[in-house]
Amino acid sequence: MADFLLYVFKLNVLAALLIVLVLCVSKFLSKKYSVWWRSWIWLAVSLALLVPVQIPDYWNVVHIQIPQQVTEERVPAVNAEVRVQGQEAAGETLPTENSLAASESTDLPENTTQFREQGTQIPSLYQMLAVVWLAAAVLYGLYKLLGSYIVQRELKRWSMPVPDKSLEMNYQKLCRKMKVSRPPKLWMNAKVTTPLLTGLLRPRIYLPSDRYTWKELELLLSHELSHYRHHDLWYKLLLQLVCIVYWFNPLLHWMRREADQDLEFLCDERIMKDGAHEERMQYNYLLAQTAAQRRNFYGLSTGFNGSLADLKKRMVNIMRAGKLKKGKFITFCFLAVFAFMNVMTGCSEKEPEDTSAVSTESVSQAETESDTSAEATPTPETTPETTPEPTQEPLATEPVTTPEPTDVPEEEQDTDDTEEIRQPAEDEMTETKTDSVEEEGDNQSDDSGGNVEAVQAKVKVYEGEYIDERLREGDPNLIEGGHTVITSNITDTSFDFTIYYLDFIKGQENVVFRTHTAVFVEDGMKAVYDGQEYYLVFTFPDYHDSHPDVTHMEVTGYGPVEGVTFSNNKVPGHQFS
């Protein structure tokens, strides 16, 4: 949503710049060139806005990134009420301390699963802008449609078929002369002051009740038939749709008014390009006569007369008809500049940077401080550990250090009890040091995956977070937490990965498999990490069959995540909830 709205905004800015540039340049070209080149530019801009084909980001040379509306933290949290209900359903009771810690945060960030059964989601700024944009466009479109309906109804109310048979016969001859195979029907109307063409599906030409000679009527009808032959009503409809959809851009409304004027200029040129001087003077006289009696008709129609402000320009243009160039090369240059700017420039929402590293460091520090304080203060009863600790996990972010025994006076404690307490502590310290030595090989963050020969990847892994699918589905067995895989440093042959455990009880994110590098092997459809203690295989089930983008992955070789499918709901073009 955000990227599309930003792309539409970019198109409007480029269109506005092009319109201003065209209007400035046309003042210097009006004496040598017709307005033909401008009419094609207006058409191309309208089509580009009505069919906004988004350009891929990797084509952009200049890419503008807009900061996100809200900066999100990567500390996982869940709704306290849902957690309590889940624990009660499982027959467990949360400790008071954990309950208070859980109640401090009630919303999940976007990159974690939302365990929210009830609640209201606040729409983003882009969603609100989209609603306002579409609502205003619909209202504006209904207003224009209603105005056109009223005009058509009034025209039909005061109209009647042409009673003069000779006029009808001359009109048919003129249509054959201008090669109009299906001419519009000819009607008389007492409310119009000049011939008027209207109607997209059933076109009609309305003649005024004033008496004109056939020579004058021939010029007037030729003008309207020229509009009909070149489908000018459909052209005006296209421009009107652009103004309705992008009602907030004032330069598009300016473009529509200029385009309406250009249509009249082009029609005059087509009629008078081979006309004699006397015929051109008579044509100008008719323009002046109808402009003085002009009445406004709203809706989709073309008329012979125009505003008094444009009268002088039209008269000068009529006298130059047939001598002006079309300016095809000028049209090509302007459209090439517009296309080039559209392809070379991009605008999107800026992704948050380095939030995972900062969050991981803060979580690890908080965990270390919590463990140290817990060990320093002995309790009479040991609280059972609620977080499952897999036996095959590597070390957490910081190695656990057992505090050395403090000096206690002999008279305040029993010697036998002291020996019984200190002996297990020494055993635990020995085991911790042994485990640290054994697992030191798989805790080095710069491991490149052993001696595995890397190949070119056939799939595209995206940098970000791949979450356990069961967390998205709200599996009650994972009410305490689950695993997630963070990918980074993506290349054509490898990627870095880190496995976390999201502890929803403590509101923490623990590193259970430190950052390592997996390389693509065999046919490039899977990746492996060949460590000293673990051999991990990453496979990428294709749920779309039409693209190489990795939205799902599975990891084997590490017990806690065996058989788990991880998914990323932020892959461009494949977002899901």
Describe this structure in words.
With 577 residues, the protein is of the alpha+beta class. It has two domains: 2-63 and 164-346, no CATH class; 379-577, no CATH class. The protein has helices spanning 2-29, 36-50, 80-89, 96-103, 125-157, 165-177, 214-229, 232-245, 250-272, 277-292, 308-319, 328-344, 355-376, 415-438, 469-472, and strands at residues 62-66, 159-161, 185-189, 196-198, 204-208, 301-303, 345-349, 464-468, 481-488, 494-503, 508-521, 526-530, 535-539, 552-556, 565-567. The strands form three sheets. The protein has an eight-stranded antiparallel β-barrel with strand order 8-9-10-11-12-13-14-15. Strands 2-3-5-4-6 form a five-stranded mixed β-sheet. Strand 12 and strand 13 form a beta hairpin. Helix 6 packs across helix 7 (214-229).
In the predicted model, the low-confidence regions spanning at least 5 consecutive residues are 70-120, 354-361, 374-449
Tell me the radius of gyration: 38 Å
Number of helices: 15
* Global structural class: alpha+beta
Structural shape: elongated
Give the averaged pLDDT, no decimals: 74
Number of strands: 15
Strand order of the largest sheet: 8-9-10-11-12-13-14-15
Q: Give the total of domains.
A: 2
Kindly estimate the percentage of residues that lie in beta strands according to DSSP: 5-15%
The H/E string reads HHEHHHEHEEEHHHHEHHEHHEHEEEEEEE
Helix content: 40-55%
The termini sit apart by 14 Å
Largest sheet: 8 strands, antiparallel, barrel
